[in-house]
């Protein structure tokens, strides 16, 4: 009822404006003759035109309804909000944004966030880029696995095998997709496209924290402090195992080139 009343008021305003325009129409131009059949004093153009009259505007609401129905709905419009669509339909309309990135999955990274870094300060730019991405993920409260290639040469070879090139850290992988290095990840974050790629925030229960990080509060392992490596217990980091009979030593086969082993809690 209120809508029809508003429509009727608009029609009455249109009628009054049409009548006022006809009464106050300017005189015809002396250099341009009036068209044949024109009305008004001095041969000017009649207003309203013969095809449009003030009486043609009806107070009936069907005048608006007829014009509103002429505009068909957009072909791509959905009758239901996206959040109310079934899971399959929602995935079809809104595909996973990770599909835009190449499928390169590091070992154990099918459902995890893996960040390859280095803690060596040999190249300052590389070291700073690793710190920036590490701090970014921590600020976003994302559970991620950090793999320091400077702690284990095997991790460096692992990164090279996954990317197919001698990639330089940092390098971020999300659920088996290669998101890129520091420049690519920071650009995604500035555009607001990084957060939708990442899994939910860090779990809050103690049990989930241990499962995700191998540690307690703050996500730091109590054994390795988040480094994921500890000194080898067989050789104490010397990389040699001595036998009392011969007086010599042999290469320890339980640790890497730095005398370190993976943290047993983080495993």
UniProtKB/TrEMBL annotation:
Residues 36-45 have a biased composition (Gly residues). Residues 19-51 are annotated as: Disordered. Pfam families: Glutaredoxin, GRXCR1-2_C. SUPFAM superfamilies: Thioredoxin-like. Residues 113-177 form the Glutaredoxin domain. It comes from the Eukaryota. This is Glutaredoxin domain-containing protein. It comes from Urochloa decumbens. The lineage of its organism: Eukaryota, Viridiplantae, Streptophyta, Embryophyta, Tracheophyta.
């Amino acid at each position: 009822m209120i809508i029809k009343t508003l429509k009727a008021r608009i029609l009455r305003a249109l009628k009054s404006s049409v009548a006022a325009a006809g009464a106050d129409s300017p005189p015809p131009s002396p250099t341009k003759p009036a068209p044949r059949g024109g009305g008004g004093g001095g041969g000017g153009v009649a207003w309203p035109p013969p095809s449009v009259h003030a009486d043609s505007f009806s107070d009936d609401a069907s005048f608006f309804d007829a014009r509103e129905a002429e505009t068909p709905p957009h072909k791509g419009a959905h009758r239901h909000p996206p959040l109310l669509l079934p899971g399959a339909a929602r995935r079809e309309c809104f595909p996973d944004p990770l599909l835009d990135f190449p499928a390169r999955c590091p070992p154990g990274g099918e459902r995890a966030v893996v960040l390859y870094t280095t803690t060596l300060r040999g190249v300052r730019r590389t070291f700073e880029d690793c710190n920036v991405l590490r701090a970014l993920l921590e600020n976003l409260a994302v559970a991620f696995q950090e793999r320091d290639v400077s702690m284990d040469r095997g991790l460096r070879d692992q990164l090279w095998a996954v990317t197919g090139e001698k990639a330089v850290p940092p390098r971020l992988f999300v659920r088996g997709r290669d998101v890129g290095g520091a420049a690519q990840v920071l650009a995604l974050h500035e555009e607001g496209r990084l957060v939708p790629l990442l899994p939910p925030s860090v779990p809050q229960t103690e049990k989930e924290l241990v499962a995700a990080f191998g540690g307690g509060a703050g996500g730091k392992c109590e054994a390795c402090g988040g480094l994921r490596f500890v000194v080898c217990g067989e050789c104490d980091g010397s990389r040699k195992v001595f036998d009392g009979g011969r007086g010599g030593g042999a290469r320890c086969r339980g640790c890497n080139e730095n005398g370190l082993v993976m943290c047993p809690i983080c495993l």
